[in-house]
């Protein structure tokens, strides 16, 4: 079959986006992104139809959309099981534990020498190795997936938080000491505000790690619901449109998760240079 229609669509979209990008407004930037995404979907659909690609190899976007519409109840149940119960709960617990541990390390150099090497060791453990162990410890429900997420997100947040607490200027710390400020006041008024950009870097990085950890952990034991469970069973039935529908849900959830954290960061660290609008 001829590839001319595919090339024509690509060149047309490229020419349109090249023309729009010259204006540089917020509307045109949004339009460029939407046109690019729509072009990818159209080309995907055309390639599958023109070259008769079997659905078990690569389903068309229309087939994925039809599977999504036909399985909304299943997808919602899997979303709640994996994202809300497993990923989000584990992320919140891991973040809280990492922040508390970072404050303890900042307070005690002994803990810094003792806990950071252990955290580095735990961070290096492969998820495929620890997931079966945690499933055996915490059971086949969402609790074991949350435990996997805690292990995955703890160290990145800890490292960023420790670096942020140590990023205060020595003169600022000396000034707080001159005022005889206790550690709690110094922590609340100086160290925590300084650490916020570092902390949010760790939080944003771990939003995707949390989703990956929860989904992968479900491959090693899960009740009859969850994204990882559904993907593994759908692959066994060669139901690739449902697999891609689950991937779509995970991608949208991950993007929203990251976006919400980035929005909170913008509100909390409005004073930081990275949040100021770029000029010129």
UniProtKB/TrEMBL annotation:
This is ABC transporter permease. It is found in: Cell membrane. The keyword Transmembrane applies. It is a multi-pass membrane protein. It comes from Paracoccus subflavus. GO terms for biological process: transmembrane transport. Keywords: Cell membrane, Membrane, Transmembrane, Transmembrane helix, Transport. The chain crosses the membrane at residues 31-52, 90-106, 118-140, 146-167, 198-222, 242-264. Pfam families: BPD_transp_1. The keyword DNA-binding does not apply. GO terms for cellular component: plasma membrane. It comes from the Bacteria. Residues 98-269 form the ABC transmembrane type-1 domain.
């Amino acid at each position: 079959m001829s590839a001319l229609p595919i090339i024509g669509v690509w060149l047309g979209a490229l020419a349109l986006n090249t023309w729009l990008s010259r204006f540089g407004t917020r509307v045109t930037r949004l339009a460029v992104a939407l046109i690019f995404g729509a072009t990818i979907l159209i080309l995907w659909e055309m390639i599958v139809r023109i070259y008769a690609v079997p659905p078990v190899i690569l389903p068309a976007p229309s087939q994925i959309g039809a599977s999504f519409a036909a399985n909304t109840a299943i997808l919602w149940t899997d979303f709640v099981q994996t994202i809300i119960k497993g990923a989000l709960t584990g992320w919140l617990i891991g973040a809280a534990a990492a922040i508390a541990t970072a404050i303890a390390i900042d307070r005690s150099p002994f803990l810094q020498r003792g806990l950071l090497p252990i955290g580095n060791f735990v961070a290096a453990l492969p998820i495929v190795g620890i997931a079966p162990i945690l499933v055996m410890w915490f059971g086949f429900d969402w609790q074991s997936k949350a435990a996997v997420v805690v292990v995955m997100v703890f160290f990145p947040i800890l490292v960023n938080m420790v670096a942020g607490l140590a990023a205060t200027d020595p003169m600022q710390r000396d000034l707080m000491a001159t005022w005889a400020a206790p550690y709690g006041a110094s922590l609340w008024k100086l160290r925590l505000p300084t650490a916020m950009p570092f902390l949010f870097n760790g939080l944003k990085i771990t939003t995707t790690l949390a989703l990956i950890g929860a989904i992968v952990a479900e491959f090693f034991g899960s009740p009859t619901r969850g994204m990882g469970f559904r993907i593994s069973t759908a692959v066994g039935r060669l139901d690739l449109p449902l697999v891609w529908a689950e991937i779509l849900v995970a991608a949208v959830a991950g993007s929203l998760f990251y976006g919400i954290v980035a929005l909170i960061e913008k509100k909390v660290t409005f004073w930081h240079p990275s949040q100021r609008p770029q000029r010129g």
